From TrEMBL:
Keywords: Membrane, Repeat, Transmembrane, Transmembrane helix. This is EXPERA domain-containing protein. It comes from Gopherus agassizii. One of its GO terms (cellular component) is endoplasmic reticulum-Golgi intermediate compartment membrane. PROSITE patterns: EXPERA. It holds the Pfam family TM_Tm6sf2. The chain crosses the membrane at residues 32-54, 63-82, 102-127, 139-159, 171-189, 218-239, 268-287, 331-351. Residues 60-185, 216-350 form the EXPERA domain. The lineage of its organism: Eukaryota, Metazoa, Chordata, Craniata, Vertebrata.
Length: 375
């Protein structure tokens, strides 16, 4: 008998509330090693329950089990953020005190909000798509970028910042968030693309148009050039560039970049060494027809930058950030406008690639009936 998987996944994820409450009541005096072992035990039980749920729902996709288990951990993260902001209490104090105290930082709270809301919705949407035998590659690539960005900033920030001395055995519970997304990403990239079919004539006509005949592409190129410049500038700021413009910016507009927790510094360096090259490649992909890789990577980087900007902006304004490092109220609008536009641009690029993919498809001989869904 096939059972609905989404209600089962929702029920399993909401079990995070009683599970965390019970563990909090029984682990007040637990040792950090014992807390880490409890985390491993909970994950093993979750994978067993997800396996049973997958068997009942007759799912053949192994990512079903990953998304089901991660939906539970997303609710745990939502509980952490709500508890740290004072909306609930009595659920995760033991874990935050003896397990991962750096989750009490503004950045830790913001990534927990993102995981508990955005990732949770993505998990349920992908579980539904799997059970309905629908393509979820687009959602999966967006999720992949978002999750990987949070990990590549969060883990180095913990090891390099002021909480480096607070790392405990529970830190190792983050290892699955490194290994599983790599494996999941390989599977997602191998799935067939769900792009609109384009005739060969339409592809040729699209690729023969000059840049001036593609105003959206021209606007995106201008955005990518400005964003690349801004990315390089903020990288110089966190590298302690001695110029007056860098000094004024870090003290007047984004003092959060000086916060000793190290997350903002790591974030700007990740932008500089990974996002900046993508912006340059994006310009190349909008100028040269047939760059089949751009739609996929535009989705990945759109998810990555959305997560990064949400966490960075939220942390800059959050009350858990010490007052000297919070963004001054008199520059809020400039700060918000700049960072919102920085996050919006990659989403426009991803939308352009997916909505009208003919320019990015390989050229085909005129007269071919059509180019089916590529790959």
């Amino acid at each position: 008998m096939q059972l609905p998987a989404v209600p089962g996944a929702v029920g399993l994820s909401l079990a995070a509330f009683p599970v965390s409450y019970a563990l909090n009541c029984g682990a007040a005096l637990a040792h950090p090693v014992a807390i880490a072992m409890m985390g491993v035990l909970v994950l093993l039980i979750l994978f067993c329950m997800a396996y049973l749920l997958g068997e009942w729902s007759q799912s053949q996709d192994p990512l079903f089990y990953v998304f089901t288990v991660f939906s539970f951990t997303s609710v745990i993260d939502l509980i952490i953020s709500l508890e740290e902001d004072g909306y609930i209490s009595g659920f995760m104090e033991f874990y935050l005190k003896e397990g991962e105290p750096y989750l009490r930082t503004a950045y830790g709270i913001m990534i927990c909000y993102w995981d508990g809301i955005v990732h949770y919705v993505l998990y349920l949407a992908m579980i539904m798509a799997i059970t309905q035998r629908k393509n979820y590659r687009t959602l999966g690539l967006y999720w992949l970028g978002s999750l990987m960005m949070s990990i590549v900033v969060f883990l180095p920030g913990n090891m390099l910042g002021k909480y480096s001395s607070e790392i405990r055995p529970s830190f190792l519970l983050n290892v699955p968030y490194i290994l599983i997304p790599i494996w999941a990403g390989m599977r997602l990239f191998r799935q067939p693309k769900s792009l609109p079919c384009c005739t060969a004539e339409k592809v040729v006509a699209e690729q023969q148009r000059s840049l001036y005949q593609r105003p959206l592409d021209l606007g995106l190129i201008l955005f990518l050039m400005v964003a690349a410049t801004f990315t390089f500038f903020r990288g110089l700021v966190v590298l302690d560039c001695p110029s007056d413009s860098c000094f004024d910016y870090i003290y007047q507009y984004e003092p959060y970049l000086r916060d000793p927790v190290a997350y903002p510094k790591v974030q700007m360096l990740v932008y500089m060494f990974y996002v900046l090259p993508f912006f340059c490649l994006g310009i190349y992909g909008l100028l040269r027809p047939g760059c089949t890789w751009l739609p996929d990577w535009a989705l990945v980087f759109a998810g990555a930058i959305a997560q990064a900007q949400f966490s960075h902006v939220g942390s800059s304004l959050h009350h858990h950030t010490p007052y000297p490092y919070r963004t001054p109220e008199e520059v809020w609008w400039v700060f918000l406008l700049t960072n919102v536009l920085y996050a919006l641009g990659p989403h426009l690029l991803a939308y352009r690639c997916l909505h009208s993919p003919g320019f990015f498809q390989p050229a085909a001989p005129t007269g071919q009936d059509g180019i089916k869904k590529h790959q």
